[in-house]
Amino acid sequence: MNKFSTIVSTLLILGVIFWSFSSLKPSINTSKNTNETSFSLDNALHHLKNISTKAHYVGSDEHKNVQNYIVTELQKMGLEPQIQTQTAINKKWFAATTAENIIAKIKGTNSDKALLLLTHYDANPHSSLAASDAGSA
């Protein structure tokens, strides 16, 4: 009887652990969404695949290609993207880089508040393709 209860207890614990992790797993909506104002996973993955085909660290030709791709896609949405250039200096590590931010404003119905969405589109030269930015882009 003792061996039987040990096996049942172990299976019960394993079942609870499996259930607790499976309930935390995000679900993917597989329905095709054709509404242009809603988020589309397929659309997002399409752009992510286009951006992450090659490493695109700051200063590389591919970084400029990714920047041009994003600007073009924003223009297709009817936006007027601008490039903001700023040199950032880190005195602690004696390093500097010139960052180029892409800014596009979506006009809302009310001028009282604004919503800022941002991410970076560069990649670490030592990472695998878009490993450093694909998760946030």
Overview features:
2 strands; 137 residues; elongated; alpha+beta; 13% strand
Give the N-terminus to C-terminus distance in angstroms. 56 Å
Strand order of the largest sheet: 1-2
Give me the number of helical elements.
Answer: 3
Radius of gyration: 23 Å
Number of strands: 2
Provide the structure class. alpha+beta
Helix content range? 25-40%
Proportion of beta-strand residues: 5-15%
The averaged pLDDT comes out at 80
Word description of this protein:
With 137 residues, the protein is of the alpha+beta class. Helix content is 36%, strand content 13%. It has three helices and two strands, in the order αααββ. It has a two-stranded antiparallel ribbon. A hairpin with a 4-residue loop joins β1 and β2 (95-103). The radius of gyration is 23 Å and the shape is elongated. The termini are far apart. 6% of the residues are buried. The mean pLDDT is 80.
Could you provide a short overview of the structure?
This protein has about 140 residues and is of the alpha+beta class. The protein has helices at about 1-25, 40-50, 60-75, and strands spanning about 80-90, 95-105. A two-stranded antiparallel ribbon has the order 1-2.
